[in-house]
Specification:
With 51 residues, this protein is α+β, with helices and mostly antiparallel strands. The chain contains two helices and two strands. The protein has helices spanning 17-31, 37-42, and strands at 3-7, 10-14. Strands 1-2 form a two-stranded antiparallel sheet. It is flat. The relative contact order is 0.18.
Length: 51
């Protein structure tokens, strides 16, 4: 069972490797690949990148 611990300065996943990979892929798909950890913790989405 995957557990997710969030504090103002850290994010920790505890579980099996495949569960953690799956959770990280879901976060990436929801918020975009360029979202830094600080924005994830603050609940913000990264601004879109210009190409």
């Amino acid at each position: 069972m995957l557990k997710k611990y969030v504090t103002p300065h850290s994010l920790q996943y505890v579980g099996k490797a495949w569960e953690i990979r799956h959770a990280l892929r879901q976060e990436k798909n929801q918020r975009g690949e360029g979202t830094p950890l600080a924005a994830l913790l603050a609940g913000r989405q990264a601004p879109p990148r210009s190409r």
